[in-house]
Write a structure and sequence with these properties.
alpha+beta; globular; 414 residues; seven-stranded mixed sheet; homodimer
Chain lengths: 414, 414
């Protein structure tokens, strides 16, 4: 089934029916850093839409407004507006500003303000000045396009401390039609669990009902975005949204049939790809860590164990130093809150430089330190942990903890 | 009641009835670093004893052996033996080695091996060579003394990445007699929650039953050692033990009466003191963070909220950079798992340089950045969070996240 799924160039404008743009409006001091992005359904066509949000109790004003809009419009939307630089969270006038941002965008696009998904990312507690956005909107509209460049502009405008833009597109056959999914995302610090300071805007030309779209998005996110951890912090502003234009021409997906499964698989693959990349591009990261738990008793156990390892500051630090101190991996499993038999644990470390077994049946074994150092000196490190008691597997992604992380976060606002 | 409690010089030999020593036996390469400590009840007198252990599922062999001994001897003990450098955990021969360490110590002290509390701290998974310990025991016994120096030797011998030795002693009046509690501890990395890689050995000359001693130790630890977090990791080898010689001459405490309360208060004060110091001396720490939650609905809520803030890598990094980014504090409260009203939160930052309000009723307010910078540039920072809904308070201690933490943990074993 997977064979007909292939990555293609581009991002949110790769699927039929979408335009995008991104410009510098002035919320950020650095004039070459774009800070305002727009995604628009061509000709204001109504798309089915769904979203998943942060589980933090303190939530950004834009999330409150987006939730309201998707509810008002019964799971449809026509545009996404997103600024970077300021999170518009914990301000007395946050909702007012988010509403105004939608109203101004709606006016210029000639749609309803409740057709808009709004997002903000950046410093919490800073007041969002609306003038730069208001002044930039005509230009932002004018810049809308379906070219590679237009999509890239939107991808770069949502970045904060990301070092690389995150955009992907995928093509697959659905109901004998070529269907596409496109995606832009921002990640970096404060990602975990349940998607902290992570934004992703997904588009697709698949025809699918709002309800089913919400189901599949929620489902896929559990195993992808929610399995990333950069530093254990969960942000107030995370959101993944998806808009479906329906223009690929497939028979509308309204139930969990084989077309649903094909769409789910494609969505999973693109979300997994960006999740790994977000982890790899974590603040200050020099390495991608991929923790695979195999043969756990339950899926939930496997997930919690994988997350516990990937979140451990001591595991992250040892990976930065390429020091195969497996005791720290066992230790992180041990305080995960999951009950298991310590004397069944096998641990392997793996990378492009090879594979080494470091723990067998709960006991740490003597290893070739030079070989281990070489394995851990690569950019992508797999930590494979066999619980030997069940049949459930899970993967979590993270990164190492570096001097650079501390530098970035010691003085983020300046 | 507090007035008659005073700190005095010394550590575990300050209370009547205890000897201590610490030497370099060779488990560590650095010959000037002591690595083996002994505490012994004078003349092998039986002490009542109690201990609290790590909650990690993977537990060090010494803990298994200590538990066994305290059970066998119905909550009594005569000596503590502790090495640093190697944790003796996750090795196939761990229990055998811990047993042997006790047997050799018992032989030389002419007591039963089950009279011994044994502990190890250091690298997990390395095999513990017994010869250096065996060879050093005669000298360790000979070095036993009740002088300030002897107590200090024991305090330094249990240190790992600690930069400063941790020993305290306290004197108070109990049943009209001067009573004492003495303590040595090691802390540093991987401390949280429930006392990770934290060892503390406490002595007292109070006369108290084993059962009541266990109660009071467990109780006090909840609000002291268990409220420290250095990096969110919980170690496999943590233990706090206490031995009571009964030599101060008080009427034996066998129930929760007023003498119990006096003893509890003194124990709390000394444990709080060392907990703060352990946090301050966390790996790479430049600052002590003290998070005070006030007016929460329940004690449990207050504790979880305080721990969530103190554990946040983003909060820790901003403190390192002296950047008053209160959004991160709110964010950490928001993902603590505790339900609360975001619009009631007040946050103040306080230090010897003054106090500043940064968040009022859930909204971040504009602050004097220079003043905030000065406040956060001090060594001890209080984060005071008023939930404004209940009456329960809690304090947690932590430290900032520095370049030095990453350096230490990137290459701990070398």
């Amino acid at each position: 089934m997977e064979s007909n799924i292939k990555f293609i160039d581009g991002g949110v404008v790769a699927p039929q029916g979408f335009l995008a743009s991104g410009i510098h409006c002035g919320l950020r001091k650095n004039k070459i850093k774009k800070d305002l992005a727009l995604i628009f359904s061509k000709n204001g066509k109504e798309c089915t839409a769904a979203a998943v949000y942060t589980k933090n109790i303190i939530i950004g004003a834009p999330i409150i407004v987006t939730k309201k809009h998707l509810k008002l419009k019964n799971g449809t939307a026509k545009a996404v507006i997103c600024n970077s630089g300021i999170a518009n969270t914990c301000n007395p006038d946050g909702i007012e500003k988010a509403d105004l941002m939608c109203k101004l965008t709606a006016d210029i696009l000639e749609i309803d303000e409740s057709d808009i998904i709004v997002a903000s990312t950046g410093v919490i507690g800073a007041v969002l000045p609306i003038e730069p956005i208001q002044n930039a909107l005509p230009l932002l509209k004018e810049a809308l396009g379906d070219t590679k460049e237009a999509g890239e502009d939107a991808a770069t405008a949502i970045m904060t401390t990301d070092t690389r833009k995150k955009e992907y597109a995928i093509e697959f056959i659905l109901d004998n039609k070529p269907a596409r999914i496109g995606l832009i995302a921002k990640g970096s610090g404060m990602i975990e669990p349940n998607m902290a300071t992570m934004l992703s805007f997904i588009t697709t030309d698949v025809d699918i009902s709002s309800e089913i779209l919400q189901n599949v998005l929620t489902d896929v996110i559990q195993d992808t975005f929610n399995m990333i951890s950069i530093d254990g912090d969960t942000s107030t502003n995370d959101m993944v949204s998806i808009m479906a234009s329906g223009l690929c021409g497939n028979k509308k997906i309204i139930e969990q049939n084989s077309d649903y499964n094909k769409f789910r698989e494609a969505l999973y693959i693109i979300c997994e790809k960006v999740s790994r990349f977000i982890a790899f591009d974590g603040e200050g990261a020099t390495k991608l860590l991929e923790c695979k738990i195999i043969n756990a008793n339950t899926k939930q156990d496997a997930k919690k164990l994988a997350k516990s390892v990937i979140k451990s500051s001591l595991v992250k630090s040892m990976m930065f130093g390429a020091d195969a101190n497996s005791g720290r991996i066992l230790c992180a499993l041990g305080y995960s809150g999951i009950d298991f038999d310590p004397e069944k644990i096998n641990v392997k470390l793996k990378s492009s430089a090879g594979e080494i077994s470091t723990c067998v049946n709960g006991f740490i074994i003597k290893i070739d330190e030079d070989k281990a150092k070489e394995i851990l000196s690569q950019e992508i490190i797999e930590i494979i942990i066999d619980m030997q008691t069940g049949k459930e597997n899970s993967v979590a992604w993270g990164c190492d903890l570096s001097y650079e992380y501390v530098r970035i976060n010691g003085d983020y606002r300046s």
